[in-house]
Amino acid sequence: DRSAYERMIVPEQWYRVFNKEKNGNEHEIAYYRIREEIRMLGAVNHPNDALAYDTTEREEGLLTSLLSRYLLKPDGSAYADIITSSWMSLDRTRERWSIRSAQYIKNEKTGAFQLVNKSTVTGDRRGDITQVVLDFPPSPTNTVQIHTPKKAYVNQAEQTLIYRILQPWQKTVYGMYLYEPQVQKLTYRTETIEPGHPAVSMSRRMK
């Protein structure tokens, strides 16, 4: 219920990702920000225009947002921006999410960064059916339907909270179904939990 999610969510988290070279030096290759909050469905596509939401879009649920930037080349001459918004109803029967990405390359003559590629993947689930729309210009937009399992399914909005949801650890291995945008299909994933101090380490295996 709402109170359970309110106890688990973290309003804002920032992370920096570093690559360690063979000589021991480290350099930053990415950063990302995660926000978790209780918001209305309409916030997925129109986060700052609540007055324009229709009746359906006013349903409250869990909204997780991720803003990230990754270097595509070590010298910083190319990078990718990814913006993800994922919402689920508090009873978990519905979800909607959007993943927008854009790639930029630095113009050697002007020094300005130019957009060279962009894509959008959106999903809308009602019950056990998820409709996924894949938009990768210049290819035609493609729509696919996915049947989600009734058990062990983790939706997009829950993925950043999954280890808080599972605590305290009662088992060492967990299995879950989830949609992986990277491979554009529903996958089954197992994670091995190794309790330690001060953190918990996980390993993943894809099926």
Structure description:
Residues 197-201 have low confidence and may be disordered. An 8-stranded antiparallel sheet has the order 1-2-3-4-5-6-7-8, with helices on one face. A 3-stranded antiparallel sheet has the order 9-10-11, with no helix packed on it. The chain is globular and about 55 Å long. The protein has 207 residues and is mostly beta strands. It is built from 2 helices and 11 strands.
Rounded mean pLDDT is 88
Question: How large is the count of helical segments?
Answer: 2
Helix- and strand-based class? mainly beta
Largest sheet: 8 strands, antiparallel
Give the helix level as a range of percent.
under 10%
User: Strand sequence of the main sheet, in spatial order?
Assistant: 1-2-3-4-5-6-7-8
Counting copies of identical and different chains, the oligomeric state is: single chain
Number of strands: 11
State which percent range the strand residues make up.
over 45%
Cα gyration radius (Å): 19 Å
Through-space gap between termini:
31 Å
Shape assignment: globular
Q: List low-pLDDT spans.
A: 197-201
Task: Record the SSE blueprint.
Blueprint: H1 2-8, E1 12-20, E2 26-40, E3 60-71, E4 78-89, E5 94-106, E6 113-126, E7 129-135, E8 142-147, H2 162-166, E9 173-180, E10 185-195, E11 200-206
